[in-house]
Write a structure and sequence with these properties.
There is one protein chain. The chain is mainly alpha-helical. It has seven helices and two strands. Strands 1-2 form a two-stranded antiparallel ribbon. Helix 2 crosses helix 3. The longest helix is centred in the middle third of the chain and has 39 residues. The N and C termini lie far apart (about 135 Å).
């Protein structure tokens, strides 16, 4: 009979608010087999970690640390998703191709200019009209022709209410000055 008495423990009644008691029962089911075991494990935790629920600074620190950790995890996941789904690497590759193409075109145009310069120098030494000279004359004529056509496109017919009709050229002063200088130069 003495064994039976030792196994039994004395219980004490504690008055707890009904809402808090309900919360504790739900929590106790998750943590331990009995309410006593749950309370004991909670008290061991607080005593071992030297945490007091009345210490507001410590509780605020723990809460803010938990929130900060959750936010950082969320930001990390956002960055990883953005890295996977972003078009930045694609844009980088496309821009690299464009710049490489532009660099290659610049090299090609430089080679063409050097070739034209050499051909021009040869034609000067011989004092004859070469195929290159003929080509350059045609190019210059085409460029001048385009310039004149562009100028003619700026001419409009003005019809005032009184008086004769006249033509008006819409050209900026700087363009007109450049045109005058080009025409005044001798070949």
């Amino acid at each position: 009979m003495e064994l039976k008495k030792k196994k039994k423990s004395d219980f004490s009644a504690i008055s707890i608010n009904r809402i808090v008691a309900g919360r504790f029962r739900e929590y106790s089911k998750k943590v331990g087999p009995s309410h006593t075991d749950t309370l004991e494990s909670m008290m061991d935790f607080f005593e071992g970690a030297k945490i007091s629920p009345k210490n507001k600074y410590l509780m605020n620190y723990m809460g803010s640390e938990h929130r900060l950790s959750k936010r950082l995890d969320y930001l990390e996941e956002l960055l990883r998703n953005r890295e996977k789904n972003s078009s930045i690497p694609k844009i980088h590759d496309m821009l690299k191709k464009v710049f490489d193409f532009a660099e290659q075109e610049e090299k090609n145009s430089q080679k063409d200019l050097e070739l034209q310069q050499r051909m021009y120098e040869r034609s000067l030494k011989r004092d004859i009209v070469t195929q290159y000279d003929n080509y350059m004359l045609k190019e210059n004529w085409n460029n001048e022709r385009k310039r004149v056509l562009k100028l003619l496109d700026r001419i409009t017919l003005e019809k005032p209410r009184f008086g004769k009709s006249y033509h008006k050229i819409e050209i900026e002063e700087s363009d007109l000055e450049v045109l005058r200088q080009d025409l005044s130069q001798e070949l």
